[in-house]
Amino acid sequence: MISLVPPLLSRTALLFLLTATGAATAARPAADIILHNGNIITLNDAQPQASALAISGSRIVAIGDDTATNEWRGDHTRTIDLQGKTVIPGLTDTHIHAIRGGQTWTFETYWYDSPSLKDALDKLRADANRRPHDQWVAVVGSWIPAQFAENRAPTVAELSHALPDHPAYIQYLYDYALVNQRGIDVLGLNDTPPPDLAGIRVERDAKGSATGKLFGDIAAFNQLFASISSNADREGGLRQFFADMNARGVTGIIDPSAGPAAAYEPLFAMRNQGDLPLRVGYRIPVQPEAKGHEAQWFSNLMAFRPARADDGQLAFLGLGESLVAGMNDGVRMTPGFSSSEQDKTALRQVATFAAKRGIPLEIHAYTG
Length: 368
Description:
Elements: H1 7-27, E1 33-36, E2 39-41, E3 49-50, E4 52-56, E5 59-64, H2 66-70, E6 78-81, E7 86-87, E8 91-93, H3 98-101, H4 117-129, E9 137-140, H5 156-162, E10 168-172, E11 176-179, H6 181-187, E12 201-204, E13 210-215, H7 218-228, H8 234-247, E14 250-255, H9 265-272, E15 279-284, H10 294-302, E16 309-310, E17 314-319, H11 341-357
Parallel strand pairs: 1-6, 2-7, 8-14, 9-10, 14-15, 15-17
Antiparallel strand pairs: 1-4, 2-3, 4-5, 10-11, 11-13, 12-13, 16-17
């Protein structure tokens, strides 16, 4: 093969290439963190395991052994000796109502691991004892009657006996809720006239007195609980919830719907302060004022917004999970839900709009 490049030019080009390569290596910023001496699970079939990795910003820049990561060391690199421990990729929960639910994480009592009603009521009493009299305690989901040794829900009488000085609110899915006697008093359920709890039906005995059992739909229960938990430290609760998620290996979440606009504010505040400890993707649901013109409402909402946006920490991921209120079955546990033709048409209109704009869309699964 005959070279058309003069020898001097070839040598000059080679020298320039070597110099440029060396300069690029020297100019490469050091990693922020290096993990080494561990068992790193990559979930990459081509390299399923490694012993070290280097992280710069939000990116893994090197993975392998010490040789692969040592060149990324710098004066300010934080080095962590794993001492043989295993590292796994962070977990991402792709459907969790964390934004709104996390805001009452430190306000609510949780029964998911209670084996008996006695244990459940003891937990509720312990939380009540840490609060001033007349402050609410609440259990909102995360339990079913069948989990208890007694195979039933608590009675209003049991709640009243366990918590004579604190109003208590116990919600079972979106089927019903229970309030104790103090809760009946605080809500004014026996007042004349009784209060208007939007969408809530109060069960009454033969004398017309409230029994403490409430019925409603998803919107009504959410509104009632928002009122009950109005004194909760919402940003503090969300911070603690995210920290607890981190402690369990979760580094990313997607929230399909956080509800009203105000529910997103604590999340945005954390993002603006640079305090998000995990990646958060969120979608925007329909709002009550959109009833009857949902597609136009979403069109107005998206008029000055890209179909999706992701800054590496917070991501807008489109529309969901409730797009037309009349198409939401309220988390029914049995068949029998039906929606009007008008609502079905509205849902098709929203879906068509989203498809034309390339906007991601998530729809709640419905019973039929």
